[in-house]
Amino acid sequence: MLRNIVSVGGLTMVSRVLGFVRDILTAALLGAGPVADAFFVAFRLPNHFRALFAEGAFNAAFVPVFTEILTKDGREPARTFAEEVQAILLSTQVVLLVVFLAIMPWFMLVFAPGFVDEPQKFELAVLFTRITFPYLLFISLVSLQGAMLNSMGRFAAAAAAPILLNLSLIGALVGLTPFLPTTGHAQSWGVFIAGMAQFAYLAWDVHRAGMDLRPRWPRVTANVRRFFKVLWPAAIGSGLVQINLFVDTLIASMLPTGAVSYLYYADRINQLPLGVIGVAVGTVLLPELSRRLKLGDFEAARDSQNRAIEFSLFLTLPAAVAFLTAAEPIMRVLFAHGVFTTADAMASAQTLMAYALGLPAFVLVKSLVPGFHARQDTATPVRVAVLAVSVNIGLKLVLMGPLSQVGLALATSASGWVNVLALAFLLRRRGYYTADPRLKRRLPRLVLATTGMAMALVLGKQALAIPLAQPGLLISGAALSALVAIGMVSFAILALAFGAISRADLGRFRRRRRGTEKNAA
Predict the structure, then answer these.
(1) Which of 157, 372, 351, 355 lies closest to 274 in space, CA to CA?
(2) Of all helices (H) and strands (E), which one includes residue 264?
(3) Fewer beta carbons below 10 Å: N end or C end of the chain?
(4) Confidence band (pLDDT; 50, 70, 90) for 518?
(5) How far, in Å, CA of 225 to CA of 228, rounded?
(6) Distances (CA, A) of 314 to 76, 277, 353
């Protein structure tokens, strides 16, 4: 399981690095003005629906049912089930696409009401969203293909698909911008092209797995009814999360120009560990737990969840502390170029620090929720989500006035901790999860190693202050790389010294990895 997590995380890391290249180009060309705000809203809208229809709820319902059919009945019945789900998913998405393309101007009045006072920004947001919205159709089918492949233990293609999104957006920035009115137009078409490219790539890997999905008319079979029985509670939970994000966009649109962009750039940095670690853990852990539970191996299921939590915290705690101690040089070196000013970078850095406070919680959620979903219990996480969303919206309304977009990020972090604490309590009370002695022993040692790393970063930031402040990316980028190296090396040394990880662990992992590579060859 850990090898698969590392594999998914490594491919996600490649995607995130390309995402940084994309964001650096976007910041330099778009800055934080009205065109940028319009594009980020247009990009966020199909992603809201993607998370609702194509990822969160869909995966929570599809993976356990598909895994059970695959384990008990074999490949052909599992493929038939996937084809039946695809037929319903495709017809639903086509209807949704037609409706939203027609009502987009009116829907934008609800989604970003703060844009109404700036007609140019509002019109651009409507146009950009009409271009990007078909992305939802393609990425929904991509999520189905990826869920199938993950359930069969094929994680690489689905993890690599987002790389195509970043390559497409970079290509659009460089290749399409000279031929279109604004960079926002180019980026919007880049999103559309990316959806088609990701679908084609996953379809190829599904073909390689011998599980090509044939077209069918939508039909509600017994397995589809089971799928929907699990889906509806999960959809309500994902809907609550998306309402949460929808409220973020609505409130941010009412703040001064630039707030949406500051939130976006800070979230992009925060999403690096969340995407590389959290998403990788959630992607691998759900089918792993589903298989273990179907086989009745409950002890192995508990061990898998403990190791996933340990691995998540081992990488996430130092990342969160690094963002808290070095947010300012990170944002300034990466983004303060072209029309994105130093003041914009400072505002984004403050927002990143607020997000970092909740980073461990959001990664831990990815390790805890599969404990419910693998048991086809999608209702309990919904109840917890209601509580977390209520806390988030309430705090946002309180903090938006005095703290602007930083208040929104703080509210997001606070709601994340409410979510993770409630999930952990319920898992333990129902006997689904208990922290084992190894996790209890290593967690305080991990905190000590992370504290020592923070001290090393503070000293390193002071020593590198002059090169970090240099204009241009060459010198300041080298200095930022040196600061990152200081953090990584100091944490590695301290983690070994305090016993947060052992040399025996590293040796076992290397031997297993070599064995896997040898078998693959």
Answers:
(1) 355
(2) helix 259-273
(3) C
(4) very low
(5) 5
(6) 40, 10, 19
